[in-house]
Every structure is written in structure tokens, then in C-alpha cells.
Amino acid sequence: MRIKMDDLKSFTYVLAVAECKSISKAAELLYISQPSLSRFISSLEQELGILLFERKSNGISLTEAGEIYVEYGKEIKRLNSTMEHKLKELQLSEEQEIHVCMSLSASLLLAMEVQDKISKKYTGCKATFSNVMAKEIITGLKNRTYDLALGPDISEKDSSIVFDLIVEDYMLLAVPKKYKMLQKAEKREGEKYLWMDISRMPDEFIIQDESCHVRQEIDQIFEEQGKELKPKMIVNSSMLAMQTLERGMGCCFISEVFLPYLTNTENIDLFCIGKNKIKKTKTGIMYLKNKILSRQEKYCIAVLKEKIKEGEM
Prior knowledge:
Layout: H1 8-20, H2 23-30, H3 34-48, E1 53-56, E2 59-62, H4 64-93, E3 96-103, H5 111-121, E4 125-132, H6 137-142, E5 148-152, E6 161-176, E7 194-195, E8 205-208, H7 213-225, E9 233-235, H8 238-246, E10 251-255, E11 268-272, E12 280-288, H9 295-309
Parallel strand pairs: 3-4, 3-5, 7-11, 8-9, 8-10
Antiparallel strand pairs: 1-2, 5-12, 6-10, 6-11, 6-12
Helix pairs in contact: 1-2, 1-4, 2-3, 5-9
């Protein structure tokens, strides 16, 4: 008889039936149905070619083969538990460097605190953080330059990327006060920003080019509004759009998480937008779909989520 490595489940089920001396009681203990457990035991006996249990009117008991199966099953489960414990100890002591890239919509201010938490839990682990543009994330993950990424949802562009949502933020229209658009804005219940109908806006838009993730959302906004997009200027990043905005050269669309990068907000009005629904942007963790996450990487993801939800971005 040959025991397969994936038969830990079989040992668990047989041991439960042997201890309970009842399939129905064992099923309750294992949180499965009695018919499912009964079929599993019968299938196992057929596979092994020998009966493990003797069925009687007053209960169920182990056969001689069942006694042997239980004896070695207990030992195999014990050895497996010991192996997992030793592997966990090895993982904790192993050196690992986790490379995380963050789009410019995410702040590096949280990096140091995340690094500290990871190194305290996993002494041999170090997390490094790099700022990149959103359009660089897919390439960085695919060529293994980065293990994890933090930024907008790019999974729609590439099915090999997993996106784990953390927060949603406002997509904002940022307008220099000189355009005097405040009086044309409306108060929307439950929204922390005044709402602007972009059809009321002059064609003074500084627009990110199509290599930027946000451009797709901008195009959708204009399409929903039925307004033709006539850019005053096209730039290749949101940072350049904001710099041009601060010089009073035009209006731009930015995610709320970019606000810490604005240095001159007193001369800028911020409006929420969206015809049928207020436009929001998504921020989350990304990694390759076929990636097997280490314990350290899973912990890094958990800490990043915690800090971002605390408002550290």
C-alpha cells in the first residue's frame, strides 16, 4: 500500500472516526456532512484495498489494518507538524529583501515605519521602496524588479496582475482661483468637496497623455459629460500637470492622494466630479498572479494596508 503526501486529510478523517467511534459524531467534529465523510472513508478503503473499520449495529471500530493506519497516521501527522514548525523557523531567520514600488500617488513617508515593523517581526528581512510612475508598474513586476506594487488599479490592462483594493479616493478637478469657478460649483449631500459640472469649465485643461493611467479615467469623465476634450496642454505625468497647475497655467485632474504633493493649495480650488456618480480612484497592492507570496511578503502587504487605512498616505 502506498501513502501519498496529500493524505494528511485522510489521516485526520480516519483519526476522528476512530476517536469518536461514530461517523456522525466525527462528521460534526470535522464540520462536514455525515454522507460526505462516509463516502470519503469508503473511497479510501477502496483505494487502499483493505477495510479500516468494522461496521456494527452498535457503532464502528478499527480493524487490524485500521489500527496500523491510525498508528502510523498519528506519527506522520506529528512529523508533518514538526517539519512545518522547523520550516517556519527557517523562514523567520532567512534573509529576504522585498522590493516594493509605489506610484507617485502613494507617499514614501510610510516606508520607514513599514520597514521597521517588518524587520522587528522578521529579523533577516528588509523592505525597500521606490517611487515610480503608474505606467512603469506592470513592467517592473513582470521583469521581477519589484515583488509588490502600490498604486492605482492596472489589473484591467494586464490579466497577469492581481489587484488587492485598499482604499478609494476622490478624483478631483483642481482649478486655479483666478478662473473664479467657485460660484459655479454645487454642494452635493455627503460629499466633502463641492461638485463641478465640467461642461461649465473653460477649455483650459492640462491633460496627462495616454501613457498615464489617469488618462483613461479623464476620457471617461468627458465622454459621460458629453463634452469634447480640448486640452490646452498635454503632459506625460500627473506631477507635471500639478506643477503647471500651480503656475496658474490651467486646470488638471488628479487623485486625492496626490494632494500632499501640491505646495500652493491656497490658490487652488478643488472639486469632485462625475455626471451620474462621483468619480473615485482605487489604490491597492499589486503582484503577479502566479507569484507565491512568502510569509514576509504577506506581512508586508498587511502592514501597508494598515498604514494606508490609518491615513498615512
